[in-house]
Amino acid sequence: MVRDLSRNDWLRSARLALLTGGVEAVRVEKLARSLRVTKGSFYWHFKDREQLLDLLLREWEEELMKDIIPQLNGRQGRDALQMLLHLLIRRVPLAEEGILPSDAAMLTWASVSPEVAQRVNRAEGKRIRLLKSVIGNSPHVELLYLVWVGFVARGQRDPASRRRFPQIARMALDFFPAEKPRRNQRLTKTT
Predict the structure, then answer these.
(1) How far from the centroid of its chain's Cα atoms is residue 79's Cα?
(2) pTM to 2 decimal places
(3) How far apart are CA 141 and CA 135, in angstroms?
(4) Looking at the 3D structure of the chain, how many domains does it have?
């Protein structure tokens, strides 16, 4: 029986391979074997492995603008943080199933590729700026991001620890002050 695979079937398989085996596991032949199809199906959807790898990285880079920001829907301060943590709680299992891009996979890939590291660093900068714009420009923001990165790294070594993320998210929310971010409204008088 011939299976008709979509581009997304290949992407999901590649996301899982990247998460569980690193960039070296994202090989056309390995993916085809895991999907139980021939390599020809891959080339119907992608020019080559490099195109697939670029797409994996690009979808992770773009998820902030395409998926996360729209769901914050103008929230600010603690309300925005609560929504963001709720989104992360929902997204972690989806990333582990290959349905969404994985922060863990990208950070691991960045640790072995200078080119990927540059792109991941830029994306992280955007994420931190987003956090500062909706939560407030305090040292807590970068600390929150570092907690997330630490959680992601630990989850790679100890997958069972991921089950604790909802509890960790609630603790992180309690760590932040209840006030909304303040904008500098001090006006300077010119003469």
Answers:
(1) 21
(2) 0.83
(3) 7
(4) 1
